[in-house]
Amino acid sequence: MSLLDYTLRIADSSLISAQRLSEWCSKGPTLEEDIAISNISLDLFGQANGFLEYVSELDGNKTVDDFAFKRNEREFFNFKITEQPNGHFGDTIVKLFLTSAFNFLFYTKLSGSKNEKLSALAAKSLKEVKYHLKHSRSWMVRLGDGTEESNKKIQESLNSLWQFTGEFFEMDKVDTEISKSGLGVNNLSIKEDWNKIINTTLSESKLIRPKDGYMQTGSKRGIHTEHLGHLLSEMQYLPRAYPDAKW
Q1: Per-residue confidence (pLDDT) for residue 243, from 0 to 100
Q2: Tens digits of per-residue pLDDT, 158-188?
Q3: What is the pLDDT of residue 167?
Q4: Would you say residue 60 lies in a domain?
């Protein structure tokens, strides 16, 4: 079950990130950015689908749609940062930047997995995540080193979301087992490189890195903030309301 659980966690973070970003569709600050965010959302939905297909294969009973639409919040294992509301544009950019920096390093490592399926999925995802990181990083610099108001707002976003970054590097029994077997990633091994990306970008953006105080935890055990339930109620409404519908 460990491989299934491990893969499901990856899929869930991609799926919930995608659902959140999709809420920006037709609401972006500019037409170009509206399209960019929508495309990043589609990338993440594609990544989620790929990993969920593998989860379904490992499970042998449930379909991809079963995993996406027929679980409640305690059965999801996405990082808590991915379920946080979009807020204003700066909030979304900070969240995308922090997660993309992690995903870039994570998929780089996972692409070397001994598991051919995970390796292939990671390699495909990595091509897209490189753009996500480049795009969000450019906005961090643009907003941080912009006006006094934009700097103030994005600094507040960073301060608010920082508490969720500790989960990136947590290692529980599942992570340890999959990592030691050569199938997965030791998240602690990428923390130093993540710090370098974050610190370099914040310096260029004229932003101050928040102190590591209280850090949110619990997503690996299915413990979430109140926001995930509301997100799932929208995302899962149609399949649950019309379970036998054919599209």
Answers
A1: 85
A2: 999 999 999 999 999 999 999 999 999 999 9
A3: 98
A4: yes
- Residue 13 is part of a domain; what is its CATH number? 1.20.1260.10
Tell me if 246 is assigned to some domain. Answer: no
Phi, psi of 236 (to 5 degrees): -100, 5
Q: Count of CB atoms within 10 A of residue 173's CB?
A: 10
What is the C-alpha to C-alpha distance for residues 21 and 44, in angstroms, rounded to an integer? 9
Count CB atoms within 10 A of the CB of residue 164: 22
Question: Number of structural domains, the chain?
Answer: 1
Does 247 fall in a domain? no
Burial 76-98 (b: 16+ CB within 10 A, else e): bbbbbbbbbeeeebbbbbbbbbb
- List the domain range (segments joined by +) for residue 233: 2-241
Please list, residue by residue across 211-231, b when 16 or more beta carbons sit within 10 angstroms of its beta carbon and e when fewer do.
eeeeebeebbebebbebbeeb
The pTM of the full predicted model, rounded to 2 decimals, is: 0.96
